[in-house]
Each structure stands twice: as structure tokens, then as C-alpha cells.
Amino acid sequence: MAKKISLRQCVGCGEMRDKKEMMRVLRSAEGPIFLDMTGRKNGRGAYLCKQRECLAKARKNRGLDRSFKQRIPDEIYETLEKEFEEGGYEADTGKG
After folding, report:
1. Looking at residue 48, what is its pLDDT?
2. Which residues are CB-neighbours of 60 under 8 A, at least 6 positions away?
3. Which of 31, 46, 79, 95 has the fewest CB atoms within 10 Å of its CB?
């Protein structure tokens, strides 16, 4: 029996991908929003492709705002961009 593939939708580009190919943005119960590198922390999660363009699209189309049902301040996006760079997420994943 084949193992089930968990698909998630990118809040930036809207493309469905395997959960393991994406990064998870998390809002914890305490309130802060950050990248969940493990993908296992408790809280409300939203997924982004591992490309800078998807983070920019999510900012422009307010994808994270909709996912978390709250206005996301610009400081959070700037922090996510820094974490994005530190996490090494810039590799092309074959997305066109």
C-alpha cells in the first residue's frame, strides 16, 4: 500500500505541493508569528514554497493575513525574510 502524500497549498502562489517541500509559517498560542523549521510545533500554520517570490506574493496578496485571520505587520514580513535567508531557502524547487 502506497504511503499517502500530504499536500498543502502555498499562500503565495496557490500551488499544491508536498508538505515536505514547503516551509511552515506558524502563529503560536502566545501570538508571535515565525518560521517553524521542524514543522511540528503547536499553533496555526500556513505554508509557503521555499522561494523568495512566494513570500513576496504572500505579502502582496495578503495570504498570511487570510490564513491567520489577522493583519500581519510589516515587521513580521521583514523578520520572515531574515529567517528565510538564514534557513537557506532560496533554492529553486523546479517551480516555473
Report:
1. 92
2. none
3. 31
